[in-house]
Write a structure and sequence with these properties.
mainly beta, four-stranded antiparallel β-sheet, 14 strands, globular
């Protein structure tokens, strides 16, 4: 509908309406405005109107449904294999088949909103990927290819990783496996299992 969602660090989430040229807080209740929207990191609005929110302090994933005051929160639960693997979320984006792909400090999480289950893919599940932190950067559902960022969990943001290398730079610039560097890698991977 043309509205723009704005995430702030200390004041929560705001919505700008270009038709009225007004900005309003997402929640009228100050408690929700602070607890759900403070320290905001990512906001993803899917085609069905559901908004997905994460923040800097690792509180997990929030699901905000349009015209519904209820807020669902998904947190990491090590004793449940179908839960979010980590509350430290770096990216949220639309995946194929209505699923939501979530980059975390502990693997790639693929969330199915229908079953409310997370499929977690880690370094051992993804050939050529190195590092605990795995985040989707771009998903091409037509070609069934996903570009992933992988690296140390504390260097999940590619803009902050000074030692970042890209595969297209060639093998001479990438240190050998096991060299102990804290660099991150970009990998273009085919995911028939997840995309097909």
């Amino acid at each position: 509908d043309g509205r723009v969602w704005l995430g702030t660090y200390t004041m929560g989430i705001f919505i700008y309406d270009p038709e009225t040229d007004q900005v309003r807080p997402l929640f009228t209740d100050p408690f929700y405005q602070q607890s759900v929207g403070s320290e905001n990191l990512h906001i993803y609005c899917d085609p069905s109107g559901i908004s997905w929110v994460s923040n800097w302090n690792g509180k997990g994933l929030y699901e905000l449904q349009p015209f519904n005051r209820l807020v669902k929160r998904y947190i990491a639960n090590p004793s449940n294999k179908d839960s979010l693997s980590s509350g430290m979320i770096s990216t949220i984006m639309r995946g194929p088949q209505g699923k939501v792909w979530i980059g975390t400090s502990d693997g790639l999480n693929i969330f199915d909103p229908l079953t409310e289950k997370f499929e977690v893919l880690r370094e051992k599940d993804l050939t050529g990927i190195r590092g605990n932190g795995i985040a989707p950067m771009y998903i091409d559902t037509v070609r069934q290819v996903a570009w992933l960022y992988a690296g140390a969990a504390d260097h999940l943001d590619p803009e902050q990783d000074e030692e970042r290398q890209e595969d297209r730079q060639g093998p001479e610039r990438n240190p050998p496996a096991g060299a102990g560097s804290r660099r991150a890698t970009f990998r273009r991977r085919r995911f028939r299992r997840s995309l097909g």
